[in-house]
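Task: sequence in, structure out. Protein: ABC transporter permease.
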Amino acid sequence: MRRNGPLALVFHAFFVIVMVAPILVVCLVAFTPEGFLSLPTNGFSLRWFRAIANYPEFIHAFWVSLGLGALSSFVALLFAVPAALAIARYRFRGRDALAALFLSPLMIPHVVLGIAFLRFFTSAGLGGSFAALIIAHVIIVFPFALRLTLAAATGMDRTVEIAAVSLGAGGWTLFRRVTLPLILPGVISGWALAFIQSFDDLTMTVFLAAPGTETLPVRMFLYIQDNIDPLVTSVSACVIAVTMTALILLDRFYGLDRVLAGKSGDTGR
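Result:
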């Protein structure tokens, strides 16, 4: 195996530092005892972590984001799995156009989508509702779920399905016991990526959220419009800690390489 040279190692180290530095700065500022954003600081304090309890709006917004991300990603997968299997298996007129249509939300700026959704849902009488948020988020996360599921379906060995059919497996049994396990890494990867996109979205959601349905990014955006204290950094640090814990557990029990790369083989664990 060819080793990286000194120049490559320096470049990689610089790249990692540039990527991680903003996260470290946010986490360090969250521990400041001052009443304003400051770094370096004279000491460390949990003052702003305790302050989160005095703002239940952040806690409520976190649960809204969590539920919205999980539900919209699950619904997106219900459409992405059959769509991916159809596109990967069959050759029909308009196949490429259909695939482009499914991926089109990636090419439209979220500001434009937010304004369009706002006008549509207001006309439909769903403005400010949680149902409108779910529908909008399903549309924007669907391409992410589709791409990874499609990659898994394209690389699937069809001979296994043919063997199962020859042994008398029906349509539902074939899908449940053969097809789904084969594409499961892509399905899980698609769900994870779709969830992250939904949980983190602000540009579109800010047009649709209303009191009671505000997501965490929207709540943080509204807070920093009127305040300059480190409370938002403490909330961000908590989200970062939860994310890192989830990634560590996911890597321990499933394997990040399978989630991020969609590998279906043995991970060597």
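The chain has a mean pLDDT of 84.
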